[in-house]
Amino acid sequence: MKSSIFTWTASALFSLAAAAPGNGHNNNNNHNSPLYKFQQKCNRLAQSFRPDANTQVLIAQYLPTGANVTNPDSHPTCQGRPSTTLLADMCRLRLKIKTSATSEVVMEAWMPLDWKKGRYLMLGNGGLGGCIAYSDMAFTTWMGFATIGHNNGHFGLTGEPFLNNPAVVEDFSYRALKTVTKTGKKAVRHLYSTSVKKSYYLGCSAGGRQGLKAAQDFPEEYDGIVVGAPAIDWNALVASQAHYYKISGDPNAAGYLTGAQWSAMRNEILAQCDGLDGVVDGVIEEPRGCNPRFEELMCAAGQTWASHSCLTAAQVSTVRKFFEPMYGRDGNLVFPRFDPGVQPNSDYYDGEPPSIADEWYKYAVFNDPNWDLGAQYSLDMVQTTMNQDLYNISTWKDLTKLKQSGHKLLAYHGLEDPVINSENTYRYYENVSRSMSLTSAELDPFFRYFPIPGASHCWGGSGNWYVGATSQISRVFGATTIPTEGGVLMSMVKWVEQGVAPERIVGRKLDIPTGAQASIKLHCKWPKKNVYLGGNANAQESWGCQ
Ligand SMILES: *[C@@H]1O[C@H](CO)[C@@H](O)[C@H](O)[C@H]1NC(C)=O
Ligand SMILES: *[C@@H]1O[C@H](CO)[C@@H](O)[C@H](O)[C@H]1NC(C)=O
Ligand SMILES: *[C@@H]1O[C@H](CO)[C@@H](O)[C@H](O)[C@H]1NC(C)=O
């Protein structure tokens, strides 16, 4: 454990802390002031907080607004800014918790001085990681949530720690989250000497899967769970990465497309489908209704890509297969098709196997770093891994427990997602509906799904993608000036605390990175869809739900 964890020195910390009282009643030299007491209590957590023998305090320190925090264990693959600037005065607690003889999880609790509402928030992870979501934590702590982030049982966006250590896979599937949820609540109760009033979860992608794991198996822990682009039916999703890579990934194949050629195909698909919703704005409002004719982009005799930006028949065949669902050994659906209109992820044409599939199979499934996706992938193997379903990682159960708990789930998924096809979330919603024999009106009291047209994977996209979710706020400048009301997190808070269930989600079209706002659209709740009513397409009242 290194000690130099901050980008600033202890004396800088002191001077900033000493400067803080200037803004009002919180006099740092006054031992009765709330600030002083909070600081003392926080700094003493290393001695006072001992929830159990498996838990060790690594850092307990009061930090003021403006302090920069870096991750001492940051693995090179953990994305994000090198350091995160705090937006609120808070207590930072970093813990290491043993989850088995060969595994541990590292978590941080960022607990704001100003904790008026008693709200607790757990954030999720991404990919195969492994990274604590610092910038999201800074934001939600500023919003007043006592926020927990963790490494889901290993550091880094890599599967290497799974190698010959199934305990780390078990952490990744559910145990890390379950463990930090409980310990985080103890820490919050300990610091504030009062219980959590309402508990929330927010995560996207792999973090969406974690949230659904909680919704399916331990919903009692969260009053409200918000999941984006959830990586559910995990084994099938991973298999689909390998499957689509086999279709499009070989640069020496006659049917190979470069990134520029995929972009040309995307433009062709937009040309055919963008207007279906009545507005040509670069967004296909309902990709499910788009069934493009890819052959429109095929070269006539004598034409080439260089001369006419057209594709060969072999390339068009690749595109056609790429936008078809993946079927398994027995003809069963493994994974649904990509949304027409996505720009394929470079994973599928950069010549290297998609890292999540590659590393998941190597390290978690086969425990063989030499396992070769190119040579050893097969539909038999896919079926075997789906049946094996390590520690129930698939995360594909109905929501009987959630319904019984009386707690709530809000799912959203961008309809321009090139990483996890949105169709998978529709499929989950409908599966839950049939499994529980509940109509959507009957699901509404505890499960609502919002498709987000024009949104890419978790953040970005050509439409109104910003919904106040995890991994979005750090992409634009001035996120603290954007209203949080109507976004996915605060809609859930309103649902839980005021009983006002969300009918629509506020989506903002923001420029990256300036944050300049082009328009607002209110996204509809499935099975309703965004429909254009006429008038200025950038005005929110020009769109309704049908
Ligand atoms: C934190 O980082 C920001 C951006 O790098 C910098 O402007 C600021 O001075 C830093 N704050 C402290 C207290 O070091
Ligand atoms: C997986 O889920 C099944 C069915 O709920 C359960 O019986 C089993 O114990 C779980 N397995 C693991 C490893 O958690
Ligand atoms: C839900 O999906 C699972 C996994 O694909 C499947 O086994 C099950 O039959 C589905 N449930 C219904 C009611 O269709």
Automatic annotation (TrEMBL):
The keyword Iron does not apply. It comes from Arthrobotrys musiformis. GO terms for molecular function: feruloyl esterase activity; metal ion binding. It catalyses: feruloyl-polysaccharide + H2O = ferulate + polysaccharide. It is an enzyme of class 3 (hydrolase). Its EC number is 3.1.1.-. InterPro entries: AB_hydrolase_fold, Tannase/feruloyl_esterase. Residues 1-19 form the signal peptide. Keywords: Calcium, Carbohydrate metabolism, Disulfide bond, Hydrolase, Metal-binding, Polysaccharide degradation, Serine esterase, Signal, Xylan degradation. The keyword Nucleotide-binding does not apply. One of its GO terms (biological process) is xylan catabolic process. This is Carboxylic ester hydrolase. Belongs to the tannase family. SUPFAM superfamilies: alpha/beta-Hydrolases (SSF53474).
